[in-house]
Amino acid sequence: MGDPTYPQPDGSGLPEPLTIAGRDGLAALLARPERAVVALDFDGTLAPIVPDPEQARAHPDAVPALAALAPRLRSAAVVTGRPAGVAVRYGGFAGVPGLAHLVVLGHYGAERWDAVTGTVHAAEPHPGVASVRAELPGFLDAIGAWRGTWIEEKGRAVAVHTRRARDPQAAFDALRAPLAELAGRHGLIVEPGRMVLELRPPGMDKGVALGAYLREVGAESVLYAGDDLGDLPAFGAVEKLRSDGVAGLLVCSGSGEVAELAGRADLVVDGPAGVVRLLSAIAAHLP
């Protein structure tokens, strides 16, 4: 029997989205893949969540699945809060046959890596990030939150993780307000995630990055898959585009930690393994 989060009603391996809009989105992708974009978050969607984010790597079948699907599409894109170059390295995307036109939109679109050139293009960094980076260790120590938390350097952002704390959720909840105050003093915002609070510049999110990219390439349909609160703006962008005639399929890489995302998805799959199965099934149904 198939996983209930990955329904297979006709035995074909293709899931059936639970919403009419999602079914329309999948049908449009299958009918005209050359006008479709498949866009994917990295951590928790293409790569399993791990205790140390520096050890995150794409699911072993993710690159083969993308390489089988991408040549039939208008474009494939990875949309991530990580630096673009880090996502490329951890994903193993560079130099892969079939991924010649992959784009990685890093730092919520502030950085862009194109497989065609193999280079990263980036805007100037926000000065507040350097200030927060210098202040953050002493700040955490002063409020008694150092034990069990750790800081991840993300170049154009800095993140505080609580997953290793004795009570990760309590540490996360206790840090939200103080970190929001610290971020605000330096012109930054706090982006909450799965036991992580990221301090980053305002004005860019996955929805802004995804919407701009879809307009750039003239997409008629889009599949977007994510797993975390930071993916909600991308979901919102796809929902808005639907009203403008762009068909969309919203996929949640299933997690009990982010019920809000699952509640807005057209389809919930079983984590990165489920995302890989979905990509492979779509590729198998294209000419």
Question: What does this protein structure show overall?
Answer:
It is built from nine helices and twelve strands. Strand 11, helix 8 and strand 12 form a beta-alpha-beta unit. Strands 5-4-3-2-1-10-11-12 form an eight-stranded mixed sheet, with helices on both faces. It has a four-stranded antiparallel sheet with strand order 6-7-9-8, covered by helices on one side. The protein starts with 19 loop residues before the first helix and ends with a helix. By secondary structure, the chain is α/β, with parallel strands linked by helices. The chain is globular. Mean pLDDT is 91; it is low at 1-11.
**CA distance, first residue to last residue:** 28 Å
Strand content: 15-25%
Q: Are there runs of 5+ residues with pLDDT below 50, and where?
A: 1-11
The average pLDDT value, as a whole number, equals 91
What kind of sheet is the major sheet?
8 strands, mixed
Strand arrangement within the widest β-sheet reads 5-4-3-2-1-10-11-12
Calculate Rg over CA atoms.
Answer: 19 Å
Which class of secondary structure composition applies to the elements?
alpha/beta
Q: Would you count the extended β strands for me?
A: 12
Q: What is the tally of helical segments?
A: 9
Helix content: 25-40%
Listing every helix as H and every strand as E from the N terminus to the C terminus, the arrangement reads HEHEHEEEHEEHEEHEHEHEH
Question: What overall form do the CA principal axes indicate?
Answer: globular
Oligomer: single chain
